[in-house]
Design a protein that fits this description.
alpha+beta; Alpha-Beta Plaits; 4-stranded antiparallel β-sheet; 3 helices; YCII-related domain-containing protein
Length: about 110
């Protein structure tokens, strides 16, 4: 598995967050929904709007396919590119260890 970390380091205001949420819901999620190998994603956001999106995929190729699918989208009517400045950093990591709740509980029961 691979993790794709997309950092938004600076604070973002209400208008930027609304634009990002609209883009995620109406443009990005539909674009990546059919990409094979994408397992899950999490969005972490602080009160000031800074945050991180973590995508988990089966392979590094799937991470690159997700990125390509997103970059291939056109802005929808009404989307303002000035409100969508993009991430500050993007990093890809191989997942070294993965344990889901069932595994953690099973390991704890054996101890």
């Amino acid at each position: 598995m691979y993790a794709h970390l997309v950092w938004f380091d600076r604070p973002r205001g209400a208008a930027e967050l609304a634009a990002a949420d609209f883009a995620a819901t109406h443009r990005i999620q539909p674009a990546v929904a059919t990409v094979p190998g994408l397992l899950d994603f999490y969005e972490l956001r602080r009160d000031d709007g800074s945050g991180l999106v973590i995508g988990i995929a089966e392979t590094e190729a799937a991470i690159h396919a997700v990125r390509a699918a997103i970059l291939a989208t056109d802005l929808l009517p009404g989307e303002d590119p000035a409100l969508l400045p993009g991430p500050d950093r993007v990093e890809i990591y191989p997942v070294h260890v993965h344990r889901d709740r069932a595994t953690i509980y099973a390991e704890g029961a054996r101890s």
